Amino acid sequence: MTTTIAKGLEGVLFTESKLTFINGTEGILTHLGIPIQEWAENSTFEELSLALLLGRLPNAQELAEFDADLKANREIPGELVEVIKAFPRGVHPMQALRTAVSHLGLFDPQAEETSEAARTAISRRMIAQFATIIAAINRAQEGQEPVAPRLDLTHAGNFLYMLTGQEPTAEQARLFDIALVLHADHGMNASTFTAIATASTLSDQYSAIVSAIGALKGPLHGGANEAVMDMLDEIGTPDKAASYITDKLDRKEKVMGVGHRVYKYFDPRSRVLRDYAAHVAEKQGKSHYYQILETIEKTVVDRLGSKGIYPNVDFYSGTVYSDLGIQKAYFTPIFALARISGWCASVIEYERDNRLLRPDAEYTGATNQHYVQLQDR
Questions:
Q1: Measured distance CA(73)–CA(52) in Å, rounded
Q2: Annotation says 260 is catalytic
Q3: How far is Cα of residue 351 from the mean position of the Cα atoms in its chain?
Q4: Which are the contacts of 224, defined by CB distance < 8 A and separation ≥ 6?
Q5: 376 within domain boundaries
Q6: Are 116 and 348 in contact, with CB atoms under 8 Å apart?
Q7: Does the annotation mark 239 as catalytic?
Q8: Is residue 52 in some structural domain?
Q9: What is the CA radius of gyration of the chain?
Q10: Which of 34, 150, 246, 373 has its Cα between 20 and 30 A from that of 71?
Q11: Residue 1 or residue 197, greater confidence
C-alpha cells in the first residue's frame, strides 16, 4: 500500500464549512460569501460575530439583542479578578489568558453542557468576557487595578477603555473595531482546528477554547505581529530598511510579517490595514514606522513576489496596535480577542455533524523486536 503524507495536513479536507472562504492565489477572503473588505468598511465586530454564530446576516432586532447580551455579560466574577491579580508578575500573557479562561468555566453553570444551544450561549458570554479578562490581565501585570467595563461603549471602545482607563476617541474605537473584524475568523487555521479537534471528543466549549488559546500561543501562529515590531525597532530608520531586508533575504532568513501558508498574493486583510496604518502613523507622529514598512514591502515583493511571497495581516497590524497604546506582549491576546468569534462559530458548525477527529500516522519505527531484560541492556 502506497501512503502519501500531507505534512502539516496541507491540502487535506476534513470537513465542510459555510463560514469562511479563502482563495490564496487571488488574495480573496470572504465570510458568508461577503468580501472581508466589505465587512471592514460597513460592519462591526459585534455584527460579524453574530453573523458567524448564526451562519447568516442578522436582522436589526437580532443584532440589537446580541449587542445588549454582550454588554450584560461583560463583567467577570470577582473571584476571577482576584485570581488574575494573583498571577506572577512577568507571566506570559497567553499563559495568563489560558488559565483565566479555564478558571472562568468553573463559574458557569452551563460549562459541562454540549448541546448547540448551550455552546451558543456560552460562546456569547465568552465573546463578551474575553475583552474584560485580557484588559484585567494587562492592568494587573502593570500593578494597576482592573477597570470595570462600561455599558455605553462599543465592544472595541470598551476594551480600549478597560485597558487604559481613558475613553478612546471615536476614531480609535472604530480603528480597533476594524482590526477585530479583520482577525475574527480565517478558516481552518491551527487554533481553529485545535478547538474543533477538542470539541469533536464531545468535550465542553471551555476546553475547546482553552485548547485554541494554547495553539495560538505558538509563535508560528499568533506572535508574528509582535516580531514585526521588534524588526522595525531593530531597523530604526527608513534609510536602513532596504539594506537590512536585502541582507536578510541574501542570507535566506525569514522576514517577519511576510509570506503565508495559504496566501500566494497579498493578504486582503493587509491591504485594509495598510491604509489605516498610514493614517494613524502620520497622526501619531510615527510615520517613520510606516516608511520602513513601505520599503520592506517593496523590497520583498520585488525579490519574492514571483514566488508568491507577500505581506500578510501581521505586517501592518502591529503598528496599528502600537499606535493605540497596546503593548507588544499583548498583540497575541488581541488576536484571541478577535478570533474567539471564529473559534466558537466553527466548533458549533462542526458539532452539527460531529465525527471524532482521529488521523493516522505512518509507522517508521523498528519491527520484529523483543523485550530485553533491564540487566541485559
A1: 19
A2: yes
A3: 21
A4: 256, 257, 312, 314
A5: no
A6: yes
A7: no
A8: yes
A9: 22
A10: 34
A11: 197
